[in-house]
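Retro notes, structure queue

What went well: the backlog is down to a handful. What didn't: a couple of records were mislabeled last round, so from now on we paste the full input next to the output in the thread. Example, using F-box domain-containing protein from Eleusine coracana subsp. coracana:
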Amino acid sequence: MGGGVRAHEVKQHRRRRHQDACAADADGGASPSLAEAYLYGDVLESVVARVPAADLAAAARVSREWLRAVRAALRRRPRRLPWLVVHLQCRSRRSAAAYDPNSGAWLTVPHAPPPHATPSHVRLVRGARGDRVCALSLSGLAVARDPLGAAACVDLAAPAVWRVDPVFAAVGDRVVALGGACRLALGEGEDAAAVEVHESGVGGGGGWTSCDPMPEPLRDSAAATWLSAAATERRVYLVDKATGWASWFDPASRRWGPTRRLGMTDVAVSNWGVAPGRAYMDNERLVLFGAKRADKQESCSVVVTAWEVDGDTLEPVPSSSRGDAMPSELAERLFPRDDDEDEEEDEDDWEDGTSPSIGVCGNAAGGYVYNAAEPSNGAVLYELREGSNEATAGTVARWEWVPCAPAVRAQPMGRAILGCSPVGVDELALGFGSAGPTACAAAH
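Corresponding output:
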């Protein structure tokens, strides 16, 4: 009896919604009213769960019920992988594009961050909650509030030591500036490898506190050009791209951790990159990437391998000792052979070729590897295995090709800054507004 009454009420409810929707359409009402009549409750949530992330912002604006459905769908089926965000800096214009790994599409960001900065001063702040574009000048440091750089910046005071190529990292609620000081502008007692911590972070206010400089093995490469950086909620990790020397800095305690040469993992590796990895119990882990020239008889010119490293000791995790190699066809697309390369060159010339330069950005779910010297070649997405089981074979669950953003190909002389971050409904609404995102095609 109760079930029959309930079914009758549902039918009446649907009939009323249909009549209201038809009446609205007859009066020139908005077309979403018909969708609202039939899509609600669990049915609506099931549909929204299959909507590409790029369209979620528009779906969330239909009504409060649709907004609740969007948020509920994302809670039940979170989209783990971060987006790849490219900030393109040119003399005449600035633009940005974002790659959605779920739909495999590039979206053009209508706002160019930050609007007041010259291209040479635009940099990136690495952070566990996502990378942020920033602009450094003599008057201050402007940090974007959102990963797409669409919102107004947070203005911080400039670090006490003037820097031209620093590493910036957001660790918890603190911003850390490491190295990159202008040697010609150093005052008495100042160090090119100086480290400063801004206590209030991107929330503004506060000031910079001077800390111990970088360890000795990193001092000769104390600049963002020569260092690969990864930021977590507790630390910022630095790796010398050429030598493999690595260390970490804890801004809460203002102390440096152990310094170790990671190059012993594979002595043939000539370029290194680092990104945050999976958490294991209470310990942080990193994903270490190494690139080396392949043997001449190999089908690809460069071999890229990923290892898992313990965050405390910087020692390789035993289960990852062999590493996970990027598929050769993807590595070849990142580092294609030179068309003018002489097929008759001898083995010594091949081994002495130009060292590959890799760039890495990611979080605990995955990230992206790209050719730092030629970002227009595209990128490779990597997804980390879920769980932290020590016995799990391998670190990387899958690799996938990411085509170059059309905006980068259209501006070959521009300076491309690559970062990655989780992007949700709020970020999409902020970045694209009521106009909605513009998808741009990219050849795979």
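Agreed that this is the format going forward. Reviewer comment attached to the example: The mean pLDDT is 80.
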